[in-house]
Amino acid sequence: MTRPTFANISNTLEHMQTSDSTPGPDPSIGPLSALLATSSEIKLVGHVGTELVSVPLPETLRTALQDLLAQTVTERPGTRTSARRQLTTQQTAEVLGVSRPTVISLLDEFEIPFSLVGRHRRLDPEQVALLRSRLREKRSQQLGVMRELSRQIGEYDANPEDNPLVRRG
Q1: CA within 20 to 30 Å of 92's CA: 24, 76, 115, 122, which one?
Q2: By the 8 A CB rule, do 1 and 47 touch?
Q3: Who contacts 68 (Cβ-Cβ below 8 Å, separation ≥6)?
Q4: Is 165 helix (H, G, I), strand (E, B) or coil?
């Protein structure tokens, strides 16, 4: 028996959210939402081989499920408003002012969370904005270090008036 992977679960959830075959909200959503909101501890129970296993549901997964259920209740069947709000890797590259391959490298280095829609990566605009701020701060710090090193070896003029390369208007 093969173990379910995160990709398989994501694809299944994606299929469930975009399926046009459901006429309306699932009647079990209300009780499931209430259970997630009110229960202090929820356990996932299932079989691993022939053994019955019970595992506590992590808080992050509980929050993700609550968000998913909230979206399911507010959306028409067959639509995904969250997909419309997400950015492609090309759009992200344009926002960050870098190339698309650089964005892919950042994703591979886990610098920013993303979701997969089929084989396509999608990014949350808020996370992209946070990454943009972090990259600007990092760039500013690195420039400060370079400026200080240049100053130490006498290659940096703190006063532009002393620099013969500065044009005076």
Answers
A1: 76
A2: no
A3: 13, 17
A4: coil
pLDDT of 30 reads 74
The answer to whether the CB of 150 falls within 8 A of the CB of 156 is yes
pLDDT in tens, 95-122: 888 999 999 998 998 888 888 888 999 9
3-state SS assignment for residue 43: strand
Record the pTM.
Answer: 0.42
Residue written as tokens 């949350």?
A: 124
129 near 96, Cβ under 8 Å? no
- Residue 51, token pair as written in the block: 């053994």
Distance CA 43, CA 56 (A): 4
Instruction: Tokens for 105, please give them.
Output: 């490298």
CA–CA gap between residue 71 and residue 68 (Å, rounded): 5
Q: Map out the domains of the chain with their CATH numbers.
A: 1-85 (no CATH), 86-169 (1.10.1660)
Which amino acid does the sequence have at 89?
T
| Structure-model confidence comparison of residues 151 and 159, the more confident one | 151
